[in-house]
Specification:
heterodimer, A: mainly alpha, globular, B: mainly beta, four-stranded antiparallel beta sheet, Aladin seven-bladed propeller domain-containing protein (chain B), Beta-prop_Aladin (chain B)
Amino acid sequence: MEPKSEIFSQRLIVAVLWNICLQTLLAVVLVLVIQVDLLHPWTWVTSTIQDILGWKMVLNIILLALVSFFQAYVYGNYYMMPLPKYFTRFSMFINMFSVQNIIFSILYALSGYFTMSLYSSLAKSTFNVLKKQCEHYEGQCLVEQSLFLQFGGMWMGLYYFLNVHIFGTAILMFPHIYQDKFQQIKLAISNIFSIGFKSSIAPVLYFSIFYFLWGSKPRNVVSDVYSLYLEDPPLDNLLNLISSGIWIGLWFYTSLFFVSIYTMRTIFNIVLTEPMKFPIESDSSLTLYNALAQRSQFNGYLGAQDLRIMAMTDPLRRQLIFTLSQPGGHPRNWNNLLDNCLSLLKCFIKELDNINGDGKTTENEIKNNILNVTPYVRMYSSNLRNMAQSPELLELKDHNKNKIEDTFTDVAKEEFYVFLNKICQKPGINYFFGELADTRLKYLLMQAQPVMWTCEGLAFIAAASLKEDNYGIVQTDLPIILSTLVNLKQSIDKLTKPGLIHRKHILNDIVAIKIKTALISAVKRSIYKIVITFSKYIHEIPLDTDLQIAIQSFLLCKEA
Amino acid sequence: MSAFHGFPDLPPPEEIAFCKIDEVYCCGNANYGNITTFTNTTQKHPVINVTKDIHHHRTTDENLSMYIDVEDNLLKKITSVWYKQGFLEALSVAADPSVNREVPLLAVAASYVLKVANVFTAFRYFLQPHLKDIGPKIVSNYSRIRNWGNVPVKCLSWHPHTTKIAVATADDNVRVYCSEAQFVSTLKCKAQGHVSSLCWRPFSASEIAVGCERGVIVWTVDPNSMFTKPSSSNAVVLNRSGHSPVTDVSWSPNGDLLISCSGADTSMLVWDVAMEVAIPLRRVAGGGIIFARWSLDASKVFAATSSLIFRVWDTTRWTPERWCARGCRVVAACWGPGDLLLFTAKGEPMVYALTNTGLLSGAKTSKAVPVLDVTKVELPSGDTVGGPILDMCWDPTGRYLAILFEESPLIAIFCTTHLMMQLRITPCCFVNGIGNELPSTMAFQQNFPAGACLTVAWSTGRVQHFPIVYNM
């Protein structure tokens, strides 16, 4: 694993602390509610306090702390690594059974088990132990309800893991406005409760069905191992299950488990996505452009977000960008920032073009071909003999330029790839090994958030420079900013050109479609921001003719 | 001394005011006069006249009488009412003995269920009294448009960067008039009913947010397209339970965020439109949020509630500063240059300014000071002007302030100058209508190079551009 960033780990720790506080609060509220005794308020309060200060509570908190540390570890693993690139069904399938996922699923099952049994013990339920004294025989009997609950806990852990980490896309969504942590938690809490109680219905149903079909096996195993008798009617009978009422308990505890795990997730999201203020120039701490340079990592996200916030709302730090270095008089801050932003944007454009060109560099090849063809035509149309442009010479040149090595291994390799490709196109095999239609684009779009922020940040800095930049530092770079933005816009436009939509560009994922809209909107707004701000002086900016034509529609407000 | 002392005399009865050019107040005959005889600055402006016959049909209470009643069977009646108006209405139909003659048992049962339901709703209204009015009633209660439910032009909005204006008409269609194109795009979809507000997205040529009963509809109207009726696939409906009817929408001046307010919702929603995600902003006390206004540099948001409380949100940390109006709720507010805010309370002939008084000393104390008293007076011509304020607009450069009164057929325009932290308000001119016309709503054009251009929608459906030219 790559080195974790310091900021990220610090935030994880903060999140864990917040989490422990909230989980404790949740447990206290649970104890308070369960012991409700309106007729004897004094005993209610005292017994609650006794329970809260008791060893069970301490154990509960320790265990919850362990669970939340484990959650932090999982988050660290999922968010720190760039998203995995799996483009075929087969690789996705294989990836599901990676060591990491297997370990995580076991851990989740355990955490489900522990959380459930803890809540049930806090709620003073009678189904905490597997054994009881038999009523009709000598010896010990199995309490099947507690077995049901404990298995249910594991099931819920696994269910959550599958739902969120395997079938869901685990990307960190940054909120578009950031309020205080406390406010956000306050807003989220009622929502978490209602969602928790609602979404626990489905897994309880699934589990009841599962138990109905397979429940006899774990029961037999457990009663064999502990050599217990079975006294009560078995729960894998539908009527017994319903009449025992244990499903209500399971639903209640599952809801609590979901509430606690959603709380954890919300807290992690809130703490991790907090905007960070990076200094523009500093010797000791991470500067803005250095953060931007760590592209796909967490710091890169924070850097891009900070760039946008700084460009929009922070005149003091903007002033630092518009200053020259002393001594020397170079716009070092701006140059560093611009280099990083542009390289980020250019990288994204390149990736987009790769997708547009079906992953091959076909465009260059076509260009080369055209270049090669035109001289021939001219050759034969002219009457003059011209040795310097003879076709043979061109061929020779071409040969020198693109040396093709005709070694046996290369040919074999190429043949092998062709063969593989052919096999991959066979119907059945294609299903598993063929590249999925939109995954490449989806993968790229999922990482587009910093690109949007960077575009907007650059545009707002450029717009602010009209009034704040005394040395004209930013204005010298306006053409390159504009051309990069326009290039980006054209590359995105290619994805949606009417009538030419490639199968690979049709997105099925709603999130990806929305991100695409957001990206287009952000890029256009950035261009509009620059063009409208500088509209009076646009002819004084040295722009290429292509670029001038491209921004004409923006000048006239005709670009949809 | 009255604030209206020093205004130029009103034009004679047959004449209306056309424009003001370099301090010269130009009037002409209402029927034969033409603004082009005075100035060319509005020559390319779209000519808008919303008459009754261009309206599409709509089943409102007035023209419902046109349709002949069909005798349906009871079950069909109940289900159709349930589908259209909800469960409670269906219950009351079932309980109504004049409708339900066939099954008296059902009527009795329904009436008992209705009684129980009424107890619950009464309790709910006791807790949340602002929810008592439903749907369009809330909008018309809090609207800054005169007689909102019954005027040809419900609201209008200028595009921030081009000469393009959107007008919401009585049939809840939004028409987009453009200076270059001759045709008018009409935006209409099923969800778009009871339009309360319009707002063009800054730094975009095509997007407009429409606040209506169901929520916010964001249309993307391609300026190059020749379709006069864009399909509803160009519209995105943003809604959230409990956030209806939307009484106001406003884009941030940076074009990135959209705030929607609903008189029935205590939180205002900040939307990321592309991702269709909203973050609610809510604080204790205050009732429903009526409208929100962004400051010109997007650093602050003014939010008025249905009670005395109003808030000024700081947009970097999204924390509010709570204020309390003295007499009544805030009815209109506008931001000017330098984070200066003007607001007025309902039923009060007074304009207040909210300024940062402690800026020089570094402390951030602000206070509200009365800056303009527009108590009702009778002009020498016999017209009355002044009184409680209905709406207020400030032109984007902060030089002219237009005020619409509740009880006057005139619009008063004042000159405002902001010098040395002092706001000076001096008289400019009146805008009057033809005959008995009343102004329903107004808006300043956002990018008028020659000065300021106030667009007024009159109660007859006539839309007038009133330029104040000083930059020629």
